[in-house]
Design goal:
By secondary structure, this protein is mainly β. A hairpin with a 3-residue loop joins strand 10 and strand 11. The strands form four sheets. Strands 3, 4, 6, 7, 9, 10, 11, 12, 14, 15 and 17 form an eleven-stranded mixed sheet that branches. Strands 5-13-8 form a three-stranded antiparallel sheet, with no helix packed on it. The radius of gyration is 23 Å and the shape is elongated. It is built from no helices and 18 strands. The relative contact order is 0.27.
């Protein structure tokens, strides 16, 4: 008796089916940067949440005093990824910094803030609610890239996040065989290494 084998992609994952984000904590020259990592993004699967980017003073004046409506810009080092425009927020802890604005485009996050004439306490700026999608497989970093603000230890090219993604490039295809015969299927994935497994439709549904 002839029967058809139909392939069904059961799961593609790197540690888990859903994208996973991690946080790394790095001490820069003065401020401390908490850098989120978003891995296992499936290309064209929609926007995924990024963990918080946190910039924290270790000295009262790491955010230089008496700055009026200055900015810093964070962008993605590769066009393979995009921010969700206008989604996300910026907040602060501490008395010496005030957040004036946040602008999010597909390629950049721009934060505007001011500082008081005197530094009295440790301050923290947190960027949260950011969402990112992958439009082509690859890897990239989030980095500061410009702006007028002086933040000790958060200069241009400072990394404040990392990304990676994957895409199914080819396969699987259907195969026919007789009872007792084996059927082989293949899959080519680009980008982040992933693991996968198959399901068989034995006539009563996939199992």
């Amino acid at each position: 008796m002839k029967q058809g084998y139909r392939t069904f992609l059961f799961g593609l994952k790197r540690l888990a089916v859903l994208p996973i984000f991690f946080l790394s904590f790095a001490m820069q020259a003065q401020v401390s940067i908490t850098s989120p990592s978003l891995d296992n993004i499936c290309v064209n699967a929609g926007y995924q949440p990024l963990g918080n980017i946190v910039i924290a003073e270790n000295s009262n004046s790491d955010f230089a005093i008496n700055q009026s409506n200055v900015t810093f810009i964070i962008d993605i080092s590769s066009s393979d990824f995009e921010f969700e425009p206008n989604v996300g927020s910026a907040s602060k802890i501490g008395p010496d910094v005030s957040i004036n604005s946040i602008t999010i485009t597909a390629s950049q996050i721009t934060i505007g803030f001011s500082t008081l004439p005197a530094a009295t306490a440790f301050d923290v700026i947190t960027i949260s609610g950011i969402r990112i999608r992958s439009i082509n497989y690859g890897a990239a970093n989030l980095k500061r890239n410009g702006g007028t603000a002086f933040i000790d230890g958060f200069v241009d090219a400072t990394i404040c996040g990392s990304l990676s993604s994957f895409q199914v490039l080819s396969g699987p295809v259907d195969a026919d065989g007789c009872d007792g015969e084996s059927a082989s299927f293949g899959l080519v994935v680009g980008g982040t290494p992933v693991s996968y497994q198959w399901e068989e439709d034995n006539g009563g549904g996939f199992s």
